[in-house]
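Researcher: Structure for this, please.
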Amino acid sequence: MRQNSIGFNFRCKGQAATELIIIMAVGLAILLSIFVLQQKTTTSVSAQFEMTKGRALVEDIANAAEQVYQEGQGSKTKVFVTVPENVNSITFSGNSISINLDAGGEPVTIYRALAFNVSGIVTTEKGKQWITIENTADNGMQLGAVLDTTMPSITTTSPSGYITSSSTGLSATTNEAASCKYDTSDVIYANMANNFNGAGTTHTADLAGLNDGVYTYYARCNDSSGNIMTTSSIINFTVDATKPRIADVFALSIGQTTAKISFLTNENTNSTLGYGNTTSLRTNPLNASYITAHNFSLSSLNPSTTYYYNVSACDQAANCQQNGTFNFTTLGSSWTTLFFEDFARSDSSNLGSNWTESGGRWEIDNNEAQVDDCDSPGDNMTTISVDLSSATNAKFSFDWEVSGLDDSAECLRVHVSNGTKTVGNLFKKCGSSPSSGTQLINLENNITFTSNMTFTFDCVSDHSSDDMFIDNVNVTAYS
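Model: Predicted structure, token format:
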């Protein structure tokens, strides 16, 4: 009885194992059928994709050929096409274009009939290529692959000249589709640090944070056939975003009907003068020369007339500055010279009877009054008294020159006194590079006229190399 029980159990276990194997086999068959179906579906989609690319290739070539055919014998063009993978042949024969390719493991032929004959050979290698199409003498189309061995070239660049902003755009135009780079050094294409945007014929890049100065960039390009420029195209421009500075604006050589206006700029500029006998100024013609010392000569002015003026200057980047409004008064018909000194006599430590000198440093040298080694504050020379009691207007003018003044504490100064009141610093030239000029001071707005007018030139400095010069001192009065 024990043996029968054991045998029965064994048979049951064997039967169960057999059933499990059958169930697993059925499941695997179902999975395999699903996999095969999925594989066929995937292959079908891939085949359709390859056939679509094949049709595009045939259409691109055929459309370009028909265009050349319409243009007539001798016409020619080239078309840029993409050859898909698994192409067995591309045939131009008779009046048709055909392509044979493997699509999903099946050979497929795509063709298009034309109204004219075609012939030629092109490569079936996957990728992009140029194909030439030419309308030949027998009115057929000759087609062939183009071997591009010509490097691209840059035809235009920008910017150039002057720009007035700290940011700008670089641009380069090429004669064919290409990728381009640029650098501040003239190096080979592979070593250039910056890429232009754009892979067609237009290439751009943005620049920012530019300071005033000259900028040079080098550009090179690489076309789709791997032809690389071996010589850089140079982009050169100047950033100038700063207005010029105007200084030392003077009305000089004033007569009854004439005057001269002068001023200096810190860089080369053109210049314009506006002037008139009211504050509504008319503009003189532009002086287009780019210089730093500017002069305008005025004529046909009215005597005893106050004229107003301003000056303008623009640099080569068109940054402009204007100074003014200033004024001067032309001499009247009754102007009289009451005091004049040109120091035209032998060199001497004695300034002469027209002057009182303090400090012992002013002297006559080379027909000028000068003070050398002006190292003690208060060295001065003062005119004798000039009678302006009957004058309704008076002017004081002189030529001056300074050198060696180092800072704002070192100055040539001019004061006027009427015996009871002193007006200081009617003119003051302090710490600057060597300079000179002619100064005209209209006295009527500065001090009451008396019979005891004096004019003082004062030297203040603290270095032995500071030198100052005065000449052609002139006091005129209008009664």
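Researcher: Any notable elements?
Model: DSSP finds one helix and 32 strands in the chain. The chain has four domains: 2-146, 156-239, 246-329, 335-478.
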